[in-house]
Amino acid sequence: MPRIQWLGLTSSDIGNVASGNDLHQSQGLLTLTARDRRKAAKMLGWAVMAEHGCEPEWRRQLQVMLMLDVKAELQLLEAAQGGIVRWVAERLGL
Question: Cα–Cα distance between 47 and 55 in angstroms, integer?
Fold first, then answer.
C-alpha cells in the first residue's frame, strides 16, 4: 500500500519561524491568491481530507491556511536555526 506524507510547512512551523522580526522571515509569507483558495477548497473535498477522512491533520492545516489567508514558501525556513536541511531531516526522521 503506497504511503504518502505531508512534506510542507505546517501552521506550527510558520509560527515558530515567523515569531522573530527578521525581514527575511516575513518575505516567505504570502497572501493566498484566488487560485490558491480554489485549490485548497477542492482538496478539502477529497475523501482523504473529508471531515472523517484518514488525514484529519491535513484537513486542519488547509483550514488554518484558509483562515489566516497566508501560505509560506520553504525559503522561510532558512531563517530558522539549522535552516531547511534540519527541517527536512526532522520531517524524514533522519
Answer: 9
Q: DSSP secondary structure string, 50-79?
A: STTSS-HHHHHHHHHHHHHTEEE-GGGGGG
**All cell numbers assigned to 10:** 505546517
* pLDDT single digits (tens) 42-93: 999 988 888 888 888 889 999 999 998 988 887 777 777 777 888 788 877 7
Is 60 in contact with 9 (CB distance < 8 Å)? no
For the chain, the maximum distance between any two Cα atoms, rounded to a whole number of angstroms, is 44
Structural domain including 51 reads 33-68
Q: Domain check: are 39 and 62 in the same one?
A: yes
Within this chain, do residues 16 and 27 fall inside the same structural domain, yes or no? Answer: yes
**Torsion over CA of 5, 90, 85 and 59, rounded to 10 degrees?**
40
